[in-house]
Amino acid sequence: MALNYITRIFVVEDDPVFSRVMKLKLEEDGNYEVTMFSSAEDFLKNLDLMPDIVTIDYTLPGITGLELLKRITDHSSEITPIIISAQEDVEVVVQAYKNGAKDYIVKNDNAIVELLNSVKNFNTQVNLKKEVEDLKSQIIDRNKYLTFIGDSKPVLAVLRLVQKIEKTNMMVLVTGQSGTGKEVISRIIHNNSLRKREPFVPVNMAAIPPDLIESELFGHEKGAFTGADSKRIGRFEEANKGTIFLDEIGEMDLGLQTKLLRVLQESTISRVGSNKEIKLDVRVIAATNKNLGQLVKENKFREDLFFRLQGFLIHLPPLHERGNDVLLLARYFVTEFCKNNHLQDKSFSKDAVEKLLSYTWPGNVRELKSTVERTAIAIDSQVINESDFIFSSFQFD
């Protein structure tokens, strides 16, 4: 059964009475969201909102209905334009269809009824297109995401989100426990984006001393501070046209958060020791294993920066919620480790498999990888048993 989508209809009509009647009747007739515009100029300011159907008054003031029709069809073939006109001249009708009109309705006593029928017919096509797009979005091209191993429902849900936003320039916030693969998923987003031929610049915010982090991110001029013997390009400039990955964003100093917020808002940076603004085109992906919302409540993280970073949120589930993905990862890690270290490949016994699945893996994928590798190098047998596993010497509560 087809889903009933809301169809967005933009009405461009300078007759206020006729436009109100159109809006009223359309909203009564179907599952439509109707927006009114009294001129082509007002409509064009909102064209990027991508309506499904547009009704156009042929005799608009300023930019004419025919000119508006041309602009709409040049902008997108996905929009369905309908011309409404008092003119019944055959040449005018033919000209409208040649310029991309999908229907031509004459303004007379029967115009509203004809409009409702026309919209209803086109709406069937619109809904079908949306349903097809929804189905496509559920199909994941797994070849693009080979570096993120797993086929559990939580992992596939993450990859569907990645698929939706990878081609956009949206800012992304990746959350999840340490070791869940936040940098891996961030690289995947970049490598499948329109910026994939440009730099991907990772920055671990927790690993940089507080007094150096501003220079690290934004660069500095020669003589800006003691030890600044030459000009330095910051990580944002290195990432120009590409993507910067700000890992452990929750560790950022409050004072620097203010400067980062301005950079995100203005798309400009100033090197330390300079007032010159440098315009940049950088996609920002940030990641954290902390609860930023809680940090905001504790006044340890700026609320405005928090909302700014959340252009699109992707949460990575912990390993123990990924089911049999643990086995896929373990087999991959042991095979790669043995190949890279000139060892004979090893397999897992039944009791080892049960242990892999029952263990909670508090260190997530990172802990699994190190455990498998330590075990593979330590044993002489080709089969890893449960008793062979060498877990971290530090035990979590």
In words, what does this structure look like?
With 397 residues, this protein is of the alpha/beta class. It has 3 domains: 7-137, 3-Layer(aba) Sandwich (Rossmann fold); 142-315, 3-Layer(aba) Sandwich (Rossmann fold); 319-388, Helicase, Ruva Protein, domain 3 (Orthogonal Bundle). 42% of the residues lie in helices and 15% in strands. It contains 15 helices and 14 strands. A 5-stranded parallel β-sheet has the order 2-1-3-4-5, with helices on both faces. It has a 5-stranded parallel β-sheet with strand order 7-8-11-6-12. Strand 1, helix 1 and strand 2 form a beta-alpha-beta unit. The model has no long low-confidence stretch (mean pLDDT 91).
In short:
The chain has 397 residues and is an alpha/beta fold.
Q: Give the CATH superfamily of the largest domain.
A: P-loop containing nucleotide triphosphate hydrolases
Total count of strands = 14
In CATH, the topology of the largest domain is named Rossmann fold
Q: Any idea what the radius of gyration is? A: 29 Å
CATH class of the largest domain: Alpha Beta
How big a fraction of the residues is strand?
5-15%
Describe the sheet with the most strands.
Answer: 5 strands, parallel
The neighbouring-strand order within the major sheet is 2-1-3-4-5
Helix and strand composition category: alpha/beta
Helical stretch tally: 15
Write the element-wise H/E pattern from the N-terminal end onward. EHEHEHEHEHHEHEHHEHEEEHHEHEHHE
Indicate the multimeric state. Answer: single chain
What is the global morphology? extended
What is the CATH architecture assignment of the largest domain?
A: 3-Layer(aba) Sandwich
Unreliable stretches covering 5 or more consecutive residues? none
The total tally of domains equals: 3
End-to-end CA span: 50 Å
Helix proportion: 40-55%
**On the 0-100 scale, what is the average pLDDT?**
91
